[in-house]
Amino acid sequence: MHASRSLLAALLVLLPVHGCGGGEAGDRTRLAFVTNGIDPFWTIAAAGVAAAARDFDVDCDVKMPANGIVDQKRIVEDLLALGIDGIAISPIDGVNQAELIDEACAKTRVITQDSDAPGTNRLCFVGMDNYAAGRECGKLVKEAMPEGGSVMLFIGRLEQDNARQRRQGVIDELLDRPVDKDHDDPAGEKLVGETYTILATLTDQFDRSRAKSNAEDTLALYPDIGCMVGLFAYNPPACLEALKSADKLGVVRVVAFDENEQTLRGILEGTVYGTVTQQPYRYGYESMRILAALARGEDAVPESGFVNVPVRVVRKANCQAFWDELKGLLEEGE
């Protein structure tokens, strides 16, 4: 991430994003966008939040918890104490945070974004179909390695609803299974299909150094591995660093998720085959659009409870155009 974008992310952890209107602070609608951590992925989403704040003349706080689930809980509780008019949250653990989310729902308008908490009273979910997106990622692996071979999956954590579904979509696609969104294969189990073998799923709990060591250990244990699949934004760059150290860039295929700059650069250079992107800018913009409308008394929640943000699949042929578009969105948010 460029220095200017790093600064933007750091400021957005602390500072509100204001719309263009005047009036007393107490008269204005104040909304919050709560992420599941700090990452360039969320810098893109924050740019969407800033654009929505301007377009709908509301004040939006972007909150990025630095210390996991405890920090996220504190942030939500602080927002409720301030009388926030609406919260869009990416739950770190939707199941175990159900009580917190329902408590927030009783006091303000709450929607989920990026990762859902379907058993709660949240009003709707803004994001993608993670299972379908995982299957798109699996298709990229098939394109990158049509002859078949061994695959290792890397992901931050599996407690999140989006992570579980995304991972399962990749697995089911590679093993040519029918669609089944209610099934979860054990993370440590080797899964053998006719063409592809999934060695395991390695988690890192958002620890970047552990993400890199997971990739390094994989190359040491499986020197003939065919493809490394990074399912959180920072996982593909960690794989690339490990491959560079092992002098295997371009030898082991890499398939990615999200639009990290190192990932996009790798696609252009040929060290990453492709990536499935979530359009986090839209997560930020659509979340604030819905909450702003609800605060005005408008009906902005779809009957399905799901605001689908379509994924985009990026390969070398369309990577530069995608990256240029992304840079433009980030500049608008500054």
Tell me what you see in this structure.
With 334 residues, the chain is α/β, with parallel strands linked by helices. It has 2 domains: 3-128 and 279-310, Rossmann fold (3-Layer(aba) Sandwich); 130-277, Response regulator (Rossmann fold, 3-Layer(aba) Sandwich). It is 44% helix and 18% strand. The chain has 11 helices and 14 strands. The protein has helices spanning 3-14, 40-56, 68-81, 98-105, 130-144, 161-174, 208-221, 235-245, 261-269, 280-295, 316-333; strands spanning 16-17, 30-34, 59-63, 86-89, 109-113, 125-127, 149-155, 191-192, 196-203, 227-230, 253-257, 274-277, 306-308, 312-315. The chain has a 7-stranded mixed β-sheet with strand order 1-3-2-4-5-6-13, with helices on both faces. A 7-stranded mixed β-sheet has the order 8-9-7-10-11-12-14, sandwiched between helices. α8 (235-245) links the parallel β10 and β11 (253-257). The longest helix is centred in the last third of the chain and has 18 residues, at 316-333. The protein is globular and about 60 Å long. The model is unreliable at 1-15 and 20-24 (pLDDT under 50).
Short description, anyone?
The protein is of the alpha/beta class and about 325 residues long. Helices cover about 45% and strands about 20% of the residues.
Task: Draw up the topology in text.
Elements (H helix, E strand, L loop, with lengths): L2 H12 L1 E2 L12 E5 L5 H17 L2 E5 L4 H14 L4 E4 L8 H8 L3 E5 L11 E3 L2 H15 L4 E7 L5 H14 L16 E2 L3 E8 L4 H14 L5 E4 L4 H11 L7 E5 L3 H9 L4 E4 L2 H16 L10 E3 L3 E4 H18 L1
